[in-house]
Amino acid sequence: MMQFHNYIGGQWQKPSNGLWCENAEPATGQTFSQWPDSGSEDVAAAVASARQAFPTWSSLSAEERSYWLMVLSDGIQEKLEEFAQAESKDNGKPVVLARTVDIPRAVANFRFFAQAITQFSSESHSMGSEGINYTLRQPIGVVGCISPWNLPLYLLTWKIAPALAAGNTVVAKPSEMTPYTAHLLAELCMEKGFPPGVLNLVHGKGASAGEAICQHPAVKAISFTGGTATGKRIAGIAAPAFKKLSLELGGKNPTIIFADCDYQTMLSQTVRSSFANQGQICLCGSRIFVERSIYEQFKADFIQKILLLKPADPSDPATRFGALVSEGHMTKVLDYIRLAKEEGGIILSGGKRVLLEGRCREGWFVEPTVIEGLPYDCRTNQEEIFGPVVTLAPFDTEDEVLQQANSTEYGLSAVIWTENLSRAHRLASHLEAGIVWVNCWLVRDLRTPFGGVKNSGVGREGGMEALRFFTEPKNICIRYGA
Ligand code: NDP
User: Fold this and answer.
1) Residue 79 burial by Cβ neighbours in a 10 Å radius (0-12, 13-18, 19+)
2) pLDDT tens-digit profile of 16-74?
3) CA of 421 to the centre of ligand 1 (A)
4) Average pLDDT, stretch 382-407?
5) Which of 90, 176, 223, 282 to mutate for ligand 1's pocket (most ligand atoms within 8 Å of CB)?
6) How far apart are CA 387 and CA 364, in angstroms?
7) Substitution site in 202, 230, 278 for ligand 1 pocket (most atoms within 8 Å of beta carbon)
8) Which atom of ligand 1 is closest in space to residue 234's alpha carbon?
């Protein structure tokens, strides 16, 4: 049994309450590791160490902090295979996905913000002969970073890299379901002599360790990615304490397909945008709207492709579709499939748990599932399932599809497939989403603002937006005098 520890002040620390929790491998259902069930005392120790490290870290030059981020970026790159294997074991995702997407992206996150901080500048406002204002962008102090289980190292580093680059010190909590690669990152920090106390990792449950981070008075900003209900709770804690808050929350994203699209590209990319990481990516498109004239053809071709996506052992390099992250999550997804049937949905493909043979016989696998025949405003089409379940619906007009696409409480991302340039621009401007992809999906430029509208979040991550979030602007007004 592996045992992970908290990483506080540059050292391993056991939980002060002596409590541990067990973590299972989704592909087998078997427990393989233990993590500290940390409480507010552990968080307090982490915050104390971050506070102690802050004066030195924040007074380093941008180039010096950039150097340290590159050390972490290079260090992950050197151990890419170890990180990828760990992520796949912990999360149930195909190892090939961890190797080609998750871990390379963690490397890129550190490298990107290592470079970005050297280019980060602040504003000045001339008042002519009277004087000048200039704005300092100063680090906030100790910041909290809380991330989910679906892209564990990818999203953890997406937060801590800009926070550290901007000169803050960090207390971070990975999801209790996927603590493994955060542990490896801490191990790397120790190996490379990363300055102690600058990054602290506390493992634990959301309701105890997570909430303790949000409540600690010395944590001045919180960057959170996770579910909308959790985000609401965190906002309730942070707002009365006037903490800065960035919330990246759930989604129920539309994929809108017009008859004039590049059909083959659309088809293969829609398989990806529906079922990558078993549909457990906040940006996956779970409601597919297809123009009526190609609806039947799309349905037949899409299902033919989906039938090739066989749930299998994630550690097998040939596997493209792995396990769901936990038994609880699998049950939630199966409950939604049951609900869809009650609401009148027709299961075109999938719909069941898969029991594999051998090593994975007790794993948490669900078939990729395609449903049609549901009204756009039913619960299945309005609530986030966050699993391998998509619905199909035909549409006739642009106005109709726009209204249905915008009908949920969420507004994270959307995809449009069309070769009609005017229509693409028109729809993109009217879709209620923070990110719109036209004729592609998940193409990412780390400089762009990332985040959602409506109940999908508050604030933006990415590029200079993240560096602005993790700094406090201070205006200095100079009068020239006579
Ligand atoms: P949760 O909201 O359950 O958890 C996210 C993180 O918050 C975890 O580390 C969790 O800890 C912690 N947490 C839980 N409760 C609290 C609390 N009361 N106070 C502080 N921290 C808490 O989300 P999931 O992990 O289930 O992730 C799935 C969700 O994340 C989906 O809704 C998905 O759409 C969203 N998401 C959004 C993205 C975006 O960019 N907008 C990207 C990726 C996912 P623990 O796991 O230990 O409970």
Assistant:
1) middle
2) 999 999 999 999 999 999 999 999 999 999 999 999 999 999 999 999 999 999 999 99
3) 37
4) 98
5) 282
6) 12
7) 230
8) 19
Q: CATH 3.40.309.10 region(s) of the chain?
A: 253-446
Percent of the chain whose predicted confidence (pLDDT) is above 70:
100
What residues does ligand 1 touch, defined as CB less than 6 Å away? 146-150, 173, 175-177, 205-207, 210-211, 214, 225-227, 230, 233-234, 248-251, 282, 384, 386, 412, 452, 457
282 in active site: yes
Residue 20, Cβ neighbours under 10 Å: how many?
19
Q: Which residue has the higher pLDDT, 245 or 482?
A: 245
Ligand 1 atom showing the smallest separation from residue 250 Cα: 34
Of ligand 1's listed atoms, the one at least distance from the Cα of 176 is 47
Query: What pLDDT is attached to residue 253?
Result: 98
C-beta of residue 90 within 8 angstroms of C-beta of residue 175: no
By the 10 Å C-beta count (0-12 exposed, 13-18 middle, 19+ buried), 263 is classed as: middle
Two tokens, residue 203: 């493992």
User: Can you tell me the distance from the alpha carbon of 10 to that of 90, in angstroms, rounded to the nearest whole number?
Assistant: 24
Distant-in-sequence, close-in-space partners of 342: CB < 8 Å, separation ≥ 6: none
Structural domain 253-446, CATH architecture: 3-Layer(aba) Sandwich (3.40)
Q: What pLDDT score was predicted for residue 346?
A: 98
- Taking the C-alpha atoms of residue 230 and residue 249, their distance in angstroms, rounded to an integer, is 9
Residues of the chain with CATH 3.40.605.10: 2-249+456-477
Q: Which fold has domain 2-249+456-477?
A: Aldehyde Dehydrogenase; Chain A, domain 1 (3.40.605)
